[in-house]
UniProtKB/TrEMBL annotation:
<keyword id="KW-0520">NAD</keyword>
<dbReference type="InterPro" id="IPR004429">
    <property type="entry name" value="Isopropylmalate_DH"/>
</dbReference>
<keyword id="KW-0028">Amino-acid biosynthesis</keyword>
<dbReference type="GO" id="GO:0003862">
    <property type="term" value="F:3-isopropylmalate dehydrogenase activity"/>
</dbReference>
<keyword id="KW-0963">Cytoplasm</keyword>
<dbReference type="GO" id="GO:0000287">
    <property type="term" value="F:magnesium ion binding"/>
</dbReference>
<keyword id="KW-0479">Metal-binding</keyword>
<feature type="site" description="Important for catalysis">
    <location>
        <position position="189"/>
    </location>
</feature>
<comment type="similarity">
    <text>Belongs to the isocitrate and isopropylmalate dehydrogenases family. LeuB type 1 subfamily.</text>
</comment>
<feature type="binding site">
    <location>
        <position position="245"/>
    </location>
    <ligand>
        <name>Mg(2+)</name>
    </ligand>
</feature>
<feature type="domain" description="Isopropylmalate dehydrogenase-like">
    <location>
        <begin position="5"/>
        <end position="346"/>
    </location>
</feature>
<feature type="binding site">
    <location>
        <position position="221"/>
    </location>
    <ligand>
        <name>substrate</name>
    </ligand>
</feature>
<keyword id="KW-0460">Magnesium</keyword>
<feature type="binding site">
    <location>
        <position position="249"/>
    </location>
    <ligand>
        <name>Mg(2+)</name>
    </ligand>
</feature>
<keyword id="KW-0432">Leucine biosynthesis</keyword>
<feature type="site" description="Important for catalysis">
    <location>
        <position position="143"/>
    </location>
</feature>
<feature type="binding site">
    <location>
        <position position="221"/>
    </location>
    <ligand>
        <name>Mg(2+)</name>
    </ligand>
</feature>
Length: 359
């Protein structure tokens, strides 16, 4: 029996709805495999600002430090998006959390599911077989540099990277490429940015240590095009914080819905798992949010605990839902299911139905 403590930050908008379904699936895993997962719900984001004035209350941070893993729904609220002068913002909570937990690598797998090929606006033959892993740097770059206003009313955001910040995530990306198809693409803007030239330098210096990995370099503008023009060329993509944010939302078009993409953030201490989508406030409370991205984030969490069979079981259950069309409206407009129905179906597959993880 494995016993783990998971801090749950459901957050804002659709966050609580998708987390509820993900925990349902985790409970099904616990029941089927005899594990114990204890959940500790804490506030982060706009809900935390409302309750405490602080997007990342100290109690939340402490709970995360002492957990075995953190599961996050989503944060953000339009009332802050439309108020550029708001002094406190939900996103500050997430950024401070990532920084405090040392989560320097955000790993975002992108898969084209065969049964959903026709749901992508991209041509099926172009995306079929896509399987890429994006390593997005998460605690440096323009997100965390000096920012502010000058006396003349201009604004600035500094982008800084140290050699160490680049090297530690680059090593993870190289190692991942070694276990996959042996191909690493560094996405940067080295024709313009000094930080990008440092990324290239560091990656070029590391490359000889990973002889089984073939390294490519792409400028981010070209990469943005290549990702949807010919996604199958990519195996592991390594990139800085902001480029990774943008490229991964774009890549979700290949899967067919932003609501399908999970992520794992790892680094020095406890790991955090979250869907790549935002809080989608327009959908909150309507039962139309896709819980699969969060459920697949739970699969990544299980894998992180070393529970490979459990993770595979969750993924197989998701495949079953995709195959059976038990999906939210953006993926099944004719016979839409609710967030709750999709979650329950997947949990049911995990608990009762799937005899073998690779059914
Ligand atoms: C993400 C989100 C966040 C980011 C926001 C909410 C700060 O877009 O996780 O991709 O930009 O990192
Ligand atoms: Mn994003």
């Amino acid at each position: 029996v494995l016993s783990k403590k998971i801090t749950v930050l459901a957050g804002d908008g659709i966050g609580p709805e998708v987390c509820r379904e993900a925990l349902k699936v985790l409970d099904a895993v616990a029941e089927r495999f005899g594990h114990e997962f204890e959940y500790d719900h804490q506030l982060m984001g706009a809900c935390a600002i409302d309750a405490t004035g602080n997007p990342l209350p100290d109690a939340t941070l402490q709970a995360c430090y002492h957990a075995d893993a953190v599961l996050l729904g989503a944060i953000g609220d339009p009332k802050y998006d439309n108020d550029p002068s708001a002094p406190v913002r939900p996103e500050q909570g997430l950024l401070r959390l990532r920084k405090s937990l040392g989560l320097f690598a955000n790993i975002r797998p992108v898969t084209a599911y065969d049964v959903l090929l026709d749901h992508s606006p991209l041509r099926a033959e172009r995306i079929q077989g896509t399987d890429m892993l994006i390593f997005r740097e998460l605690t440096g770059g323009i997100y965390f540099g000096q920012k502010g206003r000058t006396e003349d009313g201009s604004a600035y955001d500094h982008c800084t990277y140290s050699r160490e910040e680049i090297e530690r995530i680059a090593r993870l990306a190289f190692q991942a490429a070694e276990t996959r198809r042996g191909h690493l693409t560094l996405v940067d803007k080295a024709n313009v940015l000094e930080t990008s030239r440092l990324w290239r330098e560091v990656v070029q210096q590391l490359a000889p240590e990973y002889p089984a990995v073939q390294v490519d370099y792409l400028f981010v503008d070209n990469a943005a095009m290549q990702v949807i023009l010919n996604p199958k060329q990519f195996d592991v993509i390594l990139t800085e914080n902001m480029f990774g944010d943008i490229i991964s939302d774009e890549a979700s078009v290949i899967a067919g819905s932003l609501g399908l993409l999970p992520s794992a953030s790892v680094g020095s201490s406890v790991a955090l798992f979250e869907p790549i989508h935002g809080s989608y406030p327009q959908a909150a409370g309507k039962g139309i949010a896709n819980p699969i991205a969060t459920i697949l984030s739970v699969a990544m969490l299980l894998e992180h605990f070393g529970l490979l069979q459990e993770a595979d079981t969750v993924r197989a259950a998701v495949q079953k839902a995709l195959h059976d069309g038990v999906l939210t409206p953006e993926l099944n407009a004719d016979q839409p299911h609710t967030t709750e129905q999709v979650g329950s179906y997947i949990a049911f597959q995990v608990a009762e139905r799937l005899e073998s993880p690779l059914y």
